[in-house]
Design a protein that fits this description.
This protein is mostly helical. It has 5 helices and 2 strands. Helices cover about 60% and strands about 10% of the residues.
Length: about 90
């Protein structure tokens, strides 16, 4: 129970008072830590939308910028790789 409470607190602390960009970057890393079968069955946009209160347009805009900059690799919306993502974009 302590483990679950710690994870919930950690998650809330990381998404409170952060910019949309920082929230999405955090969620990208969280998605990479998921098992491969989970990553291959959910799009990045869906994953982020299900876990945050960000709009789809904001998520897609930031993901497009990260992909164009070569910071992430996606195929058909599925996250494949994360390269070094800048702290600010």
């Amino acid at each position: 129970m302590i483990y679950t409470a710690t994870r919930v607190y950690d998650h809330c602390a990381k998404i409170c008072a952060l910019s949309s960009y920082e929230i999405i970057c955090y969620q990208l890393y969280e998605l990479m830590y998921e098992p491969e079968d989970v990553r291959n069955n959910i799009t990045v946009a869906s994953y982020v939308m299900n876990r945050t209160f960000l709009s789809r347009s904001t998520i897609m805009k930031i993901l497009a910028q990260l992909k164009a900059g070569g910071y992430i690799g996606m195929e058909k919306g599925i996250l494949k790789t994360i390269n070094r993502i800048p702290s600010r974009y």
